[in-house]
Specification:
- The chain has 13 helices and 13 strands.
- The chain is an alpha+beta fold and about 450 residues long.
- The strands form four sheets. A seven-stranded antiparallel sheet has the order 2-1-7-8-9-6-3, covered by helices on one side. It has a two-stranded antiparallel ribbon with strand order 4-5. Strands 10-11 form a two-stranded antiparallel ribbon.
- Helix 7 runs antiparallel to helix 8 and helix 8 runs parallel beside helix 11.
- The chain is flat.
- InterPro entries: DNA_circ_N.
- This is Multidrug DMT transporter permease.
């Protein structure tokens, strides 16, 4: 991101000032060892020196002297204070070590102030606030790791089922469930029974392929959201759809660079419904609620495929986290979403993650007591999966908070007289085009051209 899009208002101890330019000096302390009759010398690095920030501030206007007085009072106060750098953001401990005030005869009612600050703490870093794109990239990496952890975990679960004869009926129910799932999520790459059965011999390969199919399904469902339109390969849903399409929802791929909130939330709800249906799919196939291309063994029960249900729960919530991260990492898309919209997306994923963690613990925590006698380390492998889900949930929450924090604080304003959103935007912000923003923050308003006196409106403070 360019600083032109993330520029912050400079201030010191909460007193704002306009900046003409800023120069940052960063050096390292060192000791020099020189020797007679030998060219050059040896240096010993003694660490970085305190960063030095030099600002050229500008005050002008009829009240510039009053504002200058408030600013110099803040500068004269002893000890360090918070400096907000236009590019780097908050520097919590900075000491104003020098300032010069310059008045020029030709520049009436104005002055230039040259400022020098030194940071007052060790071990500080610049750019200490991560951007949404950086947080999103970290979440994507965690999700890739989650897929590999789940693949290893499913390998361990399937190993005894494939070897022990007493588990053949259960193994057949699981195998047919996996085959029927692949027939439902049918793609051009998976075209033959031989291809399908190859995944049964290598369960981890099934996990990776099924994750890819879920991504393709989300891409198709969310094609009207540019952030999700990252895979143009379409899949054919056989038998019957896993999700209902919201009335009036356009699933055709538009050419817009962003989607409106009235599009994002209904599409997001459809993605949730689709992933929820994936979790219940194994039991639905066993119970006959979803037609099975390959008949399941007679007298099979949902308990026979509980391991598959857990697998699908982890993979579906991983795909939801993937889709939510893609949306929230897109600055253009989040610019049109309200804090409530962002909260809705994040909370819906985190709630399902907690449900999935509870499901995993209920199913596999007892295996910890039999680790020494089990042939496969199921009692150990489930814990990294839960830990990774927790990490993703926390990272997704931080991503949502970061996106919301980039906005001005949200407040409520009372309308003084009958008006409309465009006039209110002009009165409050000096920009009538922000009427669209006010309408987005106030979905309860039926008519943006008729706002009554006394109405309480959600609005940004600036």
């Amino acid at each position: 991101m360019a600083w032109s899009e993330n520029l912050q208002r400079a201030s010191f101890r909460g007193v704002r000032f306009e900046v003409l330019d800023v120069t940052d000096s960063i050096g390292r302390a060192h000791a020099t060892y020189e020797y007679p009759f030998i060219d050059g010398g040896d240096l010993k690095d003694l660490g970085r020196k305190p960063r030095r920030y030099k600002f050229t501030a500008f005050f002008w206007g009829d009240d510039y002297d009053a504002r200058l007085q408030r600013f110099t009072t803040a500068l004269d106060e002893p000890g360090p204070g918070e400096l907000v750098h236009p590019v780097y953001g908050s520097i919590p401990h900075a000491l104003a070590i020098e300032y010069e005030i310059k008045h020029v005869a030709d520049n009436v009612d104005s002055c230039v102030v040259d400022l020098t600050f030194l940071e007052d703490r060790t071990g500080t870093t610049l750019f200490n606030q991560q951007l949404p794109e950086q947080l999103g990239a970290a979440i994507f990496d965690r999700l890739d790791e989650l897929v590999e952890q789940v693949a290893s975990f499913f390998d361990a679960i399937m190993a005894p089922i494939n070897m022990v004869k007493s588990l053949l009926k259960r193994g057949r129910a699981i195998a047919n469930t996996l085959l029927n799932t692949l027939f439902i999520f049918k793609s051009d790459i998976l075209t033959s029974i031989d291809d399908f059965e190859g995944f049964l011999k290598y369960p981890s390969q099934f996990v990776r392929e099924f994750q890819r199919l879920l991504e393709m399904d989300t891409s198709k469902t969310g094609s009207s959201i540019p952030a999700l339109r990252n895979n143009t390969t379409s899949i054919t849903i056989a038998n019957q759809p896993l999700r209902p399409v919201s009335p009036g929802m356009n699933t055709a791929a538009p050419t817009d660079i962003t989607a409106t909130p009235t599009t994002v939330i209904p599409v997001w709800n459809s993605i949730l419904e689709s992933m929820d249906a994936v979790v219940t799919l194994p039991a639905d196939l066993i119970n006959g609620d979803v037609p099975a291309t390959i008949p399941v063994p007679a007298q099979s029960a949902p308990d026979d495929v509980v391991d598959v249900t857990v697998l699908y729960a982890v993979q579906s919530v991983g795909e939801l986290a993937n889709a939510a991260t893609a949306i929230l990492s897109d600055d253009i898309q989040t610019a049109v979403l309200s804090p409530d919209d962002i909260e809705t997306i994040v909370d819906s994923v985190r709630e399902r993650m907690q449900s999935t963690i509870d499901r995993i613990r209920h199913q596999y925590e007892p295996a910890q007591e039999t680790i020494s006698s089990d042939t496969t380390p199921i009692g150990l492998l489930w814990q990294p999966v839960v830990a990774q889900l927790k990490n993703v949930a926390l990272d997704l929450q931080n991503l949502g908070l970061t996106v919301i924090a980039k906005r001005p604080p949200l407040t409520k304003k009372t309308v003084i007289s009958d008006s409309c959103l465009r006039l209110l935007a002009h009165q409050w912000y000096g920009d009538h085009s922000r009427a669209v923003e006010l309408q987005r923050l106030n979905p309860q308003l039926r008519n943006p051209n008729k706002v009554n006196a006394g109405d309480v409106i959600n609005a940004y403070t600036r």
